């Protein structure tokens, strides 16, 4: 049975049905959301007292579901490459152990695609929080961006770059923040090639991420940190780097001069003009107080 719905020739990705069992262990409860490359579910871990977990399923746009299986729109070689990259993402996440990083508990292939299992965070994304409550004052923003920066430092200390840091990839609840979704992660100081498996977020990616082939460094993630800080104090997404390259001016919100300077430096268009490391970014925030 083909569970794909077609609307004007466009396939609509349907989630797995409630009660579906994955890996003979995880029972799907409901879908939590869709992204460009997958679907995230709430599930119960039957092997661990029915604890709630989040499961990410690789399900790219233009793919279809036949029964429980995902059928990719690409040839077998490209599909295999997508699955391998997805599993590599999970492996990278399992290597980072920090209270500010969503913990990956398991990963596996099934149904013609791949999955990874994460701790379930009952909270809101930073994007949803700001959109509901409005911009933060300087003190709140500095406290929160420090927590995000400390999580990013833990990632960098493992020799990994996140690559897609943005407000919708930061979860918040009364226990603090959790960084998630390493969908564009890569090893430090490696050649980055824009390809089907990599994610570029229009308003939060550094300008060098848009080139076909370049060296990606920690400064690329630091640019994204600056963008998140901009979003927290303004309530608006920053102007995309490519638009800034064309001459559109970045209008920094009317916050204190030191905080404006931190945002401006972190979001410099040239990597060498940004903070060289997360530690340097954190020191700049400390000097603000």
Q: What is the topological layout?
A:
Elements: E1 5-7, E2 10-12, E3 21-22, E4 26-34, E5 38-45, E6 51-58, E7 64-66, E8 69-71, H1 76-94, E9 104-110, E10 113-119, E11 124-125, H2 126-133, H3 138-157, E12 160-161, E13 170-173, E14 176-179, E15 186-187, E16 190-193, E17 213-216, H4 218-234, H5 241-245, H6 257-266, H7 278-288
Antiparallel strand pairs: 1-2, 3-4, 4-5, 5-6, 6-10, 7-8, 9-10, 11-13, 12-15, 13-14, 16-17
Helix pairs in contact: 3-4, 3-7, 4-6, 6-7
Task: Jot down its keywords.
289 residues, alpha+beta, Phosphorylase Kinase, domain 1, Transferase(Phosphotransferase), domain 1, three-stranded antiparallel sheet, disordered N terminus
Q: How do the SSEs run, as a string of H and E?
A: EEEEEEEEHEEEHHEEEEEEHHHH
CATH class of the largest domain: Mainly Alpha
Strand content: 25-35%
How many beta-strand runs? 17
Shape: globular
From the alpha carbons, calculate the radius of gyration and give it in angstroms: 19 Å
CATH architecture of the largest domain: Orthogonal Bundle
Poorly predicted spans: 1-11, 189-197
Mean pLDDT: 86
The side-by-side strand order for the widest beta sheet comes to 3-4-5-6-10-9
Instruction: Count helical runs.
Output: 7
CATH superfamily of the largest domain: Transferase(Phosphotransferase) domain 1
Structural class: alpha+beta
Q: Ends: how far apart?
A: 61 Å
Strand count, sense and barrel status of the largest sheet are: 6 strands, antiparallel
CATH topology of the largest domain: Transferase(Phosphotransferase), domain 1
Number of discrete domains:
2
Domain Protein kinase: 26-289
Pfam family, one: Pkinase
Binding site for ATP: 56
Keywords: ATP-binding, Nucleotide-binding
